[in-house]
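Suppose a colleague, Dr. K., hands you the sequence of a protein chain of 286 amino acids and asks what its three-dimensional shape might be. Before reaching for any lab equipment, you can write down a predicted structure in token form. Begin with the sequence itself:
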Amino acid sequence: MGDLNDSLTPSSGHSRPMPVREDCWSEEATSTLVDVWGRRFVELNRGNLRQKDWQDVAEAVNALHGHSKKTHRTDVQCKNRIDTIKKKYKIEKARVSASNGSVTSSWPFYDRLDGLIGSNFSQKKPSTSMSQSPPMARPLSYRKAPSSGTANAVSVAIPQKRPLAAVDDGFFRRNYSAMAAAAAATEAEEDEEEEEAEAEAEERGSEDEEGEGEGMRRLAKAIERFGKMYERVEAEKLRQMVELEKQRMQFAKDLEVQRMQMFTETQVQLERIKRGKKSGSNDIYG
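The predicted structure, expressed as tokens, is then:
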């Protein structure tokens, strides 16, 4: 039992914090996110942020750090990041509480998170009932069935258990510290799994965006081909209209020329008839 306790006891007074993967979030972007979220959190009387509030938080973070597609954050990503930071704070809070003040957190966001949500996480202390001695077992007396020789009552005392106070009080403290460290490690692994799932979801989202972009390109090409076809049809209609107008103008011109020719021939014939009449009258009177 002593070997097991020694193996569960931290090797040094200051245990190293569990590593947490940051993904694409830089420390500066995370600090800005905590500041913006903290102000909105206080404005809402420490209540939950709505979707509009998270969108405002994401816009504020992107205004300072979202200068590229990789660093641009959505409201969902900001909310997930705050949830991860809260879980990290719970781990640090449990570690500091388990040390009874002998360990301080070196996490840069611990003090700010402690000021914002520290009152929501009460320090969990080991139950004092464990260190108290249980009530001593009192001897029970019973009457033995009367025999032929005696009728006296016989008292039988139940063996008393050793009080827990005799156990070293440091055992409970070491055991609790080991349990807190194990719980912190488990939560850290869960956080890593959640962040990996979030990264996979982002990759799937980027693949979906690429597929959507390919579909948009195909649609644009189809619209472009339709536009070219429509342009050719309109050009052919215009050419036919110009050709018909030319034919109409040529027909009108030919018709006008024929009319002038007929009018001229008619005038010539009338002039000939007049001359013939004049010459005939001169012959009669001559």
